[in-house]
Amino acid sequence: MLKKSNIIVVTLGIALFIFLPNCKKGAATATLASDAASRVYVAPGEKDEVYAFLSGGFSGQMSVYGIPSARLFKIIPVFSVFPENGYGFDEETKDMLKTTHGYVPWDDSHHVEASMTDGKQDGRWMFLNANNTPRLARIDLKSFETKEILEIPNTAGNHASPFATENTEYLMAATRFSVPVPQSNVSIDSFSKGGFKGTVTMVKVDKNSGRLSIELQVLVPGFNYDLSHCGKKKSHDWCFFSSYNSEQAHKMLEVGASKKDKDFILAFNWVRAKECKDQGKAYNFGGEYVNNFKDENKPAVSTKLSGVKMLNPKDCPGMMYYMPTPKSPHGTDVDSTGEYIVGGGKLASVIPVHSFSKMMEVKDKKEHHSTEIEGIPVLKYESTLAGEVQKPCLGPLHTEFDGQGYAYTSCFVSSEVVKWKLGTWEVVQHLPAYYSVGHLSIVGGSSTEPYGKYLIAMNKITKDRYLPVGMELPQSAQLYDISSGKAELLSDFPTVGEPHYSQMIPAKLIMDKTAKLFPLEENKHPYATKSENDAKIVKLGNTTHIYMTAIRSHFKPDIIEARTGETLYFHVTNLEQDYDIPHGFAIGGAPNMTNLLIMPGETRTFKWVAPKPGIYPFYCTDFCSALHQEMQQYIRVSP
Amino acid sequence: MGLLSFLTIFACGGEKTEETPASNAGSKGIGPVSSVTIGALDQSMADRGKKQFEAKCSACHKFEEKVVGPALQDVTLRRTPEWIMNMILNPMEMTQKDPIGQELLAEHLVQMTFQNVKEEEAREILEYFRKMDLK
Ligand SMILES: [Cu+2]
Does A556 touch chain B (CB under 8 A)? Predict the structure, then answer.
């Protein structure tokens, strides 16, 4: 009874909302779902059902939330320095942010990808892209720490990245900003004459270690490659990339890149690409890049690499096809069966769905080709089309699948999520979103086996949703329950940075495998001090290494003498072998260095150049015991 | 019902008992060790225990004086072998529920940590304590 009346209210709310986007009353009314509060309530001591990993957008980080409570658990530093725990500052992690451009302590991170085994989430790693200075990162889900960063050469704007193949054989990375490849000083209008290029990079993921390496790059026409998703099951060998600005406009893009009625989804057969490489059809190409790897409890090792194997599409027939897709497509999403490839045309009035089987049937038949671009056949739109969702909404962007035959598409302009049926292409539900929704995520939604209970929508605008906090309002995500016939809005929550995309994983896949401490016996850090008896100070000319230990509630050694200008390395080992007892380390006034958080059994290094003479306190910053305040000492600096 | 059981648990964990330490002198404590066989001092076992002690315990314990935790001289005379091993292996529960453990926490105010010591390593540390107490 109660439920029924609420559905009516919700529907009314949507109607109001569509016509009056700024009608606050409509927005407020629509959130009054019946028992939503109890469905997101996780009682004290109880655990959430799902982990949500959200990319941080321009924060360059990844954040971890519990679903359904939407409680924020952690911010994992990836591409940006993190003063809270010293990431990017200390001797162990600063090399993680090294690039061929030098030390780059920030990035713009858009897409989170989960590792998969046989198409199913395996809870081993998360991957994240850096759009601005092209990089890819691997985050380990035992320690929830960034373990590896790989720079991608010969590209600019690593946006269509890091999308994984069905078994995490490869991660794909494609150019958003086409540029001269190799880089050169040319007039910018040569973009319009085809002088700029894009690349698609295949990054190999080692099956056991997760280590990343560049297998191959493919030189593609200079469009803007926006997003990707790889096939599954029958479409296992393929990845699909959306592209816009096939006009190759180089100024006033909002007009110039929107002239054509259709842009393209690029279908890429990565198995075929590898085959061509193995047959020697790829050539040696330049490109400097850096690989940074942080082994457990050891300083990161940064390796400079040079050169890639490059392949031209015309030298590898059968590798690439363009499928025309209306209009300025953003999302290109493959359903859980691997049959449907859904385009999200930002400016399109339909949601086009390509059929993988049709594509396979027609791809090499000339009568289904309309033209060819730089060796890549362009298939006819109707030839691969499975169907179109008619007038779904305004500005369809990105689609996720619930594994029950339904698809959910986000609509940026009309601020809603539309639910529609695969096969019949009919819209079955409009769900309001507040406001300007970008990506969506369903638990396991990009795998072959969605755990289709929750959907989150990640929004760009939050006007009127929360207490205002000055001019910059928090971005937000909204949680929907999609487990029954009608999806329902449960809650919304502010997020860190711009929540661009997310992967959600059932908690049971991860929670019992998380690391609790580093066993001291296994600490292989070159400056580890495994027992307080081994704590020592070693002077080497003007450099001093302090092998320091931390345990509740003291440091050893605890009296340090130095001379102005001397470089001191405090290699601090946390001797605790107890769960959840990190110690902190900070020195008053230390420039260029923040706080360190040292996990049980871990060694980290605080570099400090002794300043002008005086007494400088250092102390533990992580409240560790009743005598935490006493965990402090002094450095004396003499002239 | 929920409130009741919560109160009961709280009482178990936090309430001080009236028992005096003397009546606990023979206590085996709370933990995985219910009985230990003690024989003649095993030198090599004590040496292995010394190594463990220095790596994992010496940051907080000395024999002759209180540092973070209590001085350990004569500990094998004050406590049963089982109690010592349970304190090493299960310090959190011991300081919450064992009367002696509770008093020690009240006195020293720092939660003793479980240092990821295996049961046979705790036995070796005990042997080292026995060796030190024979001096
Ligand atoms: Cu501390």
Answer: yes
* Residue A20 pLDDT: 36
CA distance B62 to chain A (A): 12
What ipTM was estimated for this complex?
0.72
Closest-CA distance, B33 to chain A, in angstroms, reads 20
Range A100-128 average pLDDT: 97
Q: Is A582 left (phi over 0), alpha (psi -120 to 50) or beta?
A: beta
Contacts of A155 (CB under 8 A, 6+ apart): A134, A173, A174, A175, A179, A181, A198, A199, A201
Distance (angstroms) between ligand 1 centre and the Cα of A296 equals 22
Q: Is the pLDDT of residue A21 over 60?
A: no
Mutation to test the A interface, candidates B10, B110, B118, B125, most A Cβ within 10 Å: B110
Distance from CA of A519 to the nearest CA of B (A): 8
Residues of chain B with pLDDT > 90, as a percent, come to: 67
Nearest to B59 among A549, A625, A626 (CB): A549
Burial class (CB in 10 A: 0-12, 13-18, 19+), B128: buried
Q: Which of A517, A519, A533 sits opposite B54 (nearest CB)?
A: A533
Output the DSSP codes for A448-508: SS--TTEEEEEES--TTSS---SSSPPEEEEEEE-SSSS-EEEEEEEESS----EEEEEGG
Q: Of how many residues is chain B composed?
A: 135
Q: Does A625 touch chain B (CB under 8 A)?
A: yes
pLDDT digit string (tens) for chain B, length 135 residues: 333 333 333 333 334 444 444 456 689 999 999 999 999 999 999 999 999 999 889 888 999 999 889 999 999 999 999 999 999 999 999 999 999 999 999 999 888 989 999 999 999 999 999 999 987
Find where tokens 């010591």 sit: B117
Distance in Å, CA A624 to ligand 1 centroid? 4
Contact between chains at B55 and A626 (C-beta distance less than 8 A): no
CA dihedral A284, A285, A287, A288 (to 10 degrees): 20
Asked if A325 and A285 count as a contact pair (C-beta separation under 8 A), the reply is no
